[in-house]
Write a structure and sequence with these properties.
Strand content: under 5%
Number of helices: 22
Helix content: 55-70%
Shape: globular
Distance between the termini: 81 Å
């Protein structure tokens, strides 16, 4: 039988050689088609990302739908996120997937932040909180049970958590992705010191000799330089021109001023999608307009408290999560910020005390040496992490009995040493 030698005297008939070559050829063609399709799809996704950065959510959603790209993008996002988002409970509907897909196309880092914020809030809603003592006959302290929330109400809250930053789509990609650090902006402030001198004096800040000293003085006043410098002095000329065309006042507003508009935009977008409960919670989670302080819980019920819980989850994730332009805070550093907000009545002290106490059981205990230092040294002489801990413990001692609805809950003080 004629054939070709393969190895050590073995032969393969010609027909098998031809079949093998044919299979190899078909495999190579299939691989090339897949690669070509993959390259085209990646190009399509890149084009879709560029398109949804126009600053108009409704327009971008309809354009994706009209071009037949929306369902393909939803499938891509589901493949990447569905297991992490849904968990054991399916709360996402078509509108929610459409909205979250736009967030992912607009800015994947924001989408990731929203998912992690959801995880934090869901854990607090459905798990027993550590360090909260119950009297005989009372159930564990679980927010969802205290609030008497059924599954439908929880689903509304979870969708609000996932979509709370959707308003950023209408703010500006250039603003959201600006990576100027405090040091960078302090240099800009120093270069324009003549323009901003009056603002600094109004904040009781002397005009200081160099940017580093200026930044130190701002920190002592709990002020970030980007809260003083106008956006136009930080952005590139090209970005400033684009934003002016969209009607964004970069010449008079600061970057934080513009970013804060995302809360109101989130409420408008979700309202337009017919998500009334979600829109209210997402539209008040930072309470930039100070409306929650004027709203008795009896009027809007548990939604006020849910907006506060979303705020706590959002702040913790933003402070401890990775950002390209800043180092993440430690867990204690982030909890310190929540405590400071609660002490200044920026967020509900009762909810904050329960949240912070629960988180303290996830913080590594002190060594005996550090515990002794915490007890004997004054606050200003402690290293930063011990300062955070001292402030947090002081807050919990003052707020060891909290009221949630008609229930009084006693908080125990966490042990300093394991």
């Amino acid at each position: 039988m004629k054939g070709r030698p393969i190895r050590d005297g073995f032969f393969m008939p010609h027909r098998y050689v031809l079949l093998l070559l044919s299979l190899m050829h078909d495999g190579i063609e299939a691989f090339e088609r897949r690669e070509g399709n993959g390259m085209q799809e990646r190009k399509n996704v890149t084009n879709d990302r560029e398109m949804v950065r126009s600053g108009n959510f409704a327009q971008d959603l309809e354009t994706l739908r009209a071009e037949g790209r929306l369902e393909k993008e939803i499938d891509r996002v589901k493949h990447a996120y569905e297991e992490r988002i849904q968990g054991s409970n399916s709360f996402m509907d078509q509108k929610a997937w459409e909205a979250f897909t736009i967030i992912d196309l607009f800015h994947p880092e924001t989408a990731e932040h929203c998912v992690e914020t959801l995880h934090l809030a869901r854990e607090k809603m459905e798990s027993a909180l550590h360090g909260s003592n119950q009297t005989a006959g009372e159930s564990a302290v679980i927010f969802s049970k205290i609030f008497n929330m059924d599954r439908n109400a929880l689903n509304v809250f979870y969708r609000a958590c996932l979509l709370h930053d959707i308003g950023k789509v209408n703010v500006s990609y250039e603003i959201i992705t600006n990576t100027a650090s405090d040091q960078d902006v302090a240099k800009v402030l120093y270069l324009h010191i003549n323009e901003y001198g009056r603002v600094l004096k109004d904040r009781h800040l002397a005009i200081i000799a160099n940017p580093d000293k200026l930044l130190e003085a701002l920190k002592r006043k709990n002020t970030r330089p980007n809260g003083i410098v106008r956006a136009v002095d930080i952005l590139s000329p090209e970005s400033a021109t684009i934003l002016r065309r969209r009607g964004i006042d970069v010449d008079n507003k600061t970057l934080p001023d513009i970013i804060r508009e995302h809360e109101e935009q989130s409420q408008k977008i979700l309202e337009a999608l017919g998500m009334a409960g979600e829109s209210w919670i997402a539209g008040h989670h930072h309470d930039y307009k100070n409306e929650l302080k004027e709203i008795p819980v009896e009027i809007h019920g548990v939604r006020v408290l849910l907006a506060e819980i979303l705020h706590l989850a959002d702040v913790i994730q933003a402070m401890t999560g990775k950002r390209g332009y800043k180092k993440p805070h430690t867990k204690l550093g982030a909890l310190d910020i929540l405590v400071d907000q609660a002490m200044h009545k920026m967020v509900d002290p009762n909810l904050t005390a329960l949240w912070v106490r629960d988180e303290m059981d996830r913080v590594e205990p002190l060594s005996a040496e550090d515990a002794a230092l915490l007890e004997t040294e004054s606050y200003k002489n402690l290293p930063p992490e011990l300062q955070h801990r001292k402030k947090i413990l002081g807050f919990l001692e003052k707020n060891n009995k909290v009221r949630i609805g008609d229930r009084i809950i006693t908080i125990d003080i966490p042990k300093m040493v394991a």
